[in-house]
């Protein structure tokens, strides 16, 4: 259901800043002698999040499209709300759901009506649905990463939340046809 609770709150970077403050406060309380380190590190990370938030706001401010399609579950509603775009997902919040044939047809129709050229899938969820819709609607596929987990190669390669979100921004700008 579209009204299900979306647990992906971290995809609104203003929420992340609150989480960083809460973590720094908890560590500072448990280890007061090193509180200045926790507070300083939190401040530095919040600056990175603020810069990321600004990159998204600027990067998604002038786009020809206002809707993206995901061939998976709707993990990006916080991001969409914060940066002013719409999401059409193959299914609700659970990554284990399956879309109905009626839903798939509806998505294909929306893609055609809005001139959408891309469908997104998550890096750690099977792209099967996105690929099927892509084949039927003539869409290209791209990755959006909700950053809930990392692939082994990403971890070994030093991927961070910030780097994953920067890659998402590149892909969103392509799909939304941003200037």
Strand line-up in the sheet with most strands: 1-2
Which structural class fits the helix and strand makeup? mainly alpha
Largest sheet: 2 strands, parallel
Poorly predicted runs of 5 or more residues? none
Averaged pLDDT: 92
Total strands:
4
Give the N-to-C terminal Cα separation.
Answer: 34 Å
Descriptive report:
- The chain has 179 residues and is mainly α.
- It contains seven helices and four strands, in the order H-H-E-H-E-H-E-H-E-H-H.
- It has helices at residues 13-30, 35-59, 77-83, 101-114, 128-137, 152-156, 161-175, and strands at 67-73, 86-91, 118-121, 140-143.
- It has a two-stranded parallel ribbon.
- Helix 3 (77-83) links the parallel strand 1 (67-73) and strand 2.
- Helix 2 packs parallel to helix 7 (161-175).
- The longest helix has 25 residues, at 35-59.
- The radius of gyration is 18 Å and the shape is elongated.
- The two termini are 34 Å apart.
- The model has no long low-confidence stretch (mean pLDDT 92).
